[in-house]
Specification:
single chain, alpha+beta, three-stranded antiparallel sheet, two-stranded antiparallel sheet, elongated
Length: 94
C-alpha cells in the first residue's frame, strides 16, 4: 500500500475529502520525523512505537575489492509493533 492508497482508503472509510486526509497524513509523518530528530520516541498504544535504535561499530567487507572496512556506530529510525498488533498479524495473515 502506498501513501496515495492509504489516503484513498481513509477518505473512503471516513467520508473526509482526500485533500484533507492528505494534509493529516503528511502532518503525522512530519511530526513523527521531527520527534525522532529531537531524540523523542513516538508511542502509539495498541499499534507500536517509532524509536531510534543505536547500531554498534562493526567490521564490514567490500566483496568486490576483497577489503574490510569499519562501519562506525550510528543511529537509525525503527518501528516496533505493539504486542497486540503483532499477535493479530501472526494469527490473521497466512
Amino acid at each position: 500500500m502506498t501513501k496515495a492508497d492509504l489516503v484513498s482508503e481513509i477518505s473512503n472509510k471516513t467520508g473526509v475529502d482526500k485533500a484533507a486526509v492528505q494534509v493529516v497524513v503528511d502532518s503525522f509523518m512530519t511530526t513523527v520525523k521531527g520527534s525522532l530528530l529531537k531524540k523523542e520516541n513516538v508511542y502509539l498504544r495498541g499499534f507500536g512505537s517509532f524509536i531510534i535504535k543505536e547500531r554498534a561499530k562493526k567490521t564490514g567487507r567490500n566483496i568486490s575489492k576483497g577489503t574490510t572496512l569499519i562501519i562506525p556506530a550510528h543511529k537509525i529510525p525503527a518501528f516496533k509493533p505493539a504486542k497486540s498488533f503483532s499477535t493479530i498479524v501472526k494469527t490473521k495473515v497466512k
